[in-house]
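Possible race condition, two jobs.
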Amino acid sequence: MDEEHIRPEGVDDLTVEALGNISEALEAIEIARGHLYSFHRITGTADFTLEKGVDQLREAGHTELADRFERELVGRNVLYGRWTFQVMEEYDDGYYATFKRLEKDARDALVQGKRHLYESEMKEERRTHGRTGHEHRPDE
């Protein structure tokens, strides 16, 4: 039996469902964090590509316009006082770290730290017992 995904004795349905919703919200936050890292990468790539275009404008004799791009946009903060790496660090160290800590604290306090109890129980309800491709766990 997979004790890691078995509800501890005395834990009610609403608690398991609540922790499932909190876990689902954390999954959404993980996706948002991934998009933030994509934002960081894409913005950095755009800045370097912009710089290349500015250099080409300068080579083509458009120095005034190239100077304006360079002054106003190349290397500019994306938010006041911040490049994207600073946005990521603030998000990671603040909201994201707090969310991760509270979600773990709730699991530790209520279900002995067990993860995905809601999903595990849903799997048991939905799978066809004894059928290939519907095994309880990989070691069956």
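Job #2 (started ~2 s after job #1):
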Amino acid sequence: MPRLLVAFLTCVASAVLATGAAFGIVAALNVTPEQQNVPLVTFPDPPANGPSSAPSPSAS
């Protein structure tokens, strides 16, 4: 009987420890500030008037 009690208490203690670790990890992740969403590469805006009116070199 004492072995069964020790096994049960070990299981309960490990479950409590795992639950505490999970809540601790989630709390630590919520405390960290979010990083800014700044793009590493930017592209120029396309011209507002659409395609160019000059003929393309391959059209000749």
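The two ends are 97 Å apart (CA to CA).
Logs attached separately.
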